[in-house]
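User: quick one, sequence for these tokens?
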């Protein structure tokens, strides 16, 4: 069956539960996991201001011409089109969550990419929890990062909410999770918390996950960058190969009729061809998480999921390989914009 047909039929909703027996004891970071870049950017709020961390010129433009500025930011900062549960149904098992406090949002926390989202953090995580309840053999990795304008109290409240909501579903960072071990313990969620003050205090929070991205609008440069990074050896645990393109001010100015989706669709065939040539696993060059924009618009999810069957056809890794891949915690590469 064609990848596109499988997507249309919802064939990837429970893909982990259908993996071959020989993959059930493989550390999760040695499987190929489809991920969405800036997972919550589908619901950006054009009435909200530009983030304080954005360049000064953009913030100045937003101050005097807010309507035009925010519409433009929305066009280029929107990288996904559907809610988390639908992304899960497509097969996504890694979420890139950029968390922020709105200037006039009270104690509620939101997500952000250029501007803030309409949906709160609690609403999105509640939705994810409901989906996990309905799919007990699926395991998801959530990367919480950026934390724009959060206070110590905000961090404490957020961590408490995560622990209260997900409880026993959380995978400990002190263990080596596999599908079989997660199923036996009813664990379904790895939470990476990219704050070096908070994460070490809680064994159920994982350190930041390295995210490789090229910071380029050229798909060939993206591939060249990823190949260069792979040639240096893969990180020990979870890490992300970002297929996402990045625009800059000159590019936006020279392409007034484009937006992020058009730019992505134009480059997607090149990026997916590279993806299909990859393989997961602990050895050098083995991919872990692969992230993409507009994950519902192509065969991306099926392509990444299919990489795992290459691993199933190989001899099993030795116990020393598994031990050497214990939980990377090396957030030495910053998150993409």
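Assistant:
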């Amino acid at each position: 069956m064609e990848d596109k047909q499988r997507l249309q039929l919802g064939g990837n909703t429970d893909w982990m539960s259908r993996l071959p027996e020989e993959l059930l004891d493989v550390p999760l970071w040695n499987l190929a996991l489809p991920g969405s870049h800036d997972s919550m950017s589908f619901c950006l709020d054009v009435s909200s201001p530009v983030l304080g961390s954005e360049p000064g010129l953009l913030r100045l433009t937003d101050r005097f011409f807010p309507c035009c500025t925010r519409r433009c930011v929305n066009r280029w900062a929107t990288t996904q089109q559907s809610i988390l549960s639908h992304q899960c149904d497509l097969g996504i098992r890694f979420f890139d969550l950029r968390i922020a406090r709105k200037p006039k949002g009270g104690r509620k926390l939101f997500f952000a990419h250029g501007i803030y989202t309409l949906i709160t953090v609690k609403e999105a995580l509640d939705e994810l929890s409901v989906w996990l309840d309905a799919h007990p053999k699926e395991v998801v990795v959530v990367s919480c990062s950026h934390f724009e304008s959060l206070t110590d109290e905000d961090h404490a409240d957020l961590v408490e909410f995560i622990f209260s909501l997900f409880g026993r579903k959380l995978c400990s960072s002190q263990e080596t999770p596999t599908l079989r071990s997660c199923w036996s313990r009813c664990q379904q969620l790895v939470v990476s918390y990219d704050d070096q003050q908070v994460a070490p205090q809680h064994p159920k929070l994982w350190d930041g996950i390295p995210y490789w991205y090229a910071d380029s609008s050229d798909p060939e440069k993206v591939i060249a960058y990823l190949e260069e990074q792979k040639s240096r050896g893969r990180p020990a645990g979870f890490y992300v190969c970002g297929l996402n393109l990045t625009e800059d001010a000159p590019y936006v100015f020279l392409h007034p009729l484009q937006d992020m989706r058009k730019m992505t669709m134009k480059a997607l065939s090149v990026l997916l061809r590279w993806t299909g040539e990859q393989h997961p696993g602990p050895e050098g060059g083995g991919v872990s998480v692969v992230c993409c924009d507009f994950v519902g618009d192509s065969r991306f999810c099926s392509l990444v999921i299919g990489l795992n069957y290459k691993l199933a056809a190989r001899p099993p890794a030795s116990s020393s390989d598994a031990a050497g891949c214990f939980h990377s915690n090396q957030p030495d590469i910053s998150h993409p914009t």
